Amino acid sequence: MPTSLPSPTAAARSAAVAPVAPAIDPERRRAAASHFYARLCAALSKGSLVLGIIGLLGIIVSVQTQVVGRYVFNDTPTWTEALALQLVLYVTALGVAVGVRDAGHIGLESLVALLPEGLRLKVELLIHALVALFGGIMAWSGWIWVGYKWDELDPMLGLPVGLDYLSMVIAGVLIVLFSIEHIVALLRGEDVVPAWH
Q1: For the stretch 34-43, what's the b/e string if a residue is b when 16 or more beta carbons lie within 10 angstroms of its beta carbon?
Q2: N or C: at which end does the chain have fewer Cβ atoms within 10 angstroms?
Q3: Residues with Cβ < 8 Å from 171, sequence gap 6 or more?
Q4: Strands 190-191 and 31-32
């Protein structure tokens, strides 16, 4: 007698029970963070995702405008390539920040999961503190470059070259905020739920 497969509704129910953002150790189940700061970071993350999607659409439109101008009208617009490159910077910066919040960055999770509970928490806190430090350095150095390059104009767009480095500042600030959110969640015994869920 053939074995019956689980119904789609049973599979959906079991998927709904599984945690969205499990802790490093899948055996540990933590409650989702729901305090004000977690909701603020979730809103910033969702906003970053929306802006990233808009930026990707802008890149597509910009590149298509360049291709049509070159091959259809034999007149390539000079601003399209510069705009596409500018948008790539911002889409990448926002994507990196959201990746930090949703734990999409590279990590040695299997190694950390083998550690004892007390040491594991300390290592996780250290990891997020180091990521926050990286974000702070990124924001600070980006701000310095914004100041250096603000008076210099991009010949193709007519905008300050400092806008290129402003993407580093935005990403760095968001990384710091999201890393602090992870630290607070760990100290409270909670999990950070990805914004896209």
Answers
A1: eeeebeebbe
A2: N
A3: 93, 94, 96, 97, 135, 138, 139, 142
A4: parallel
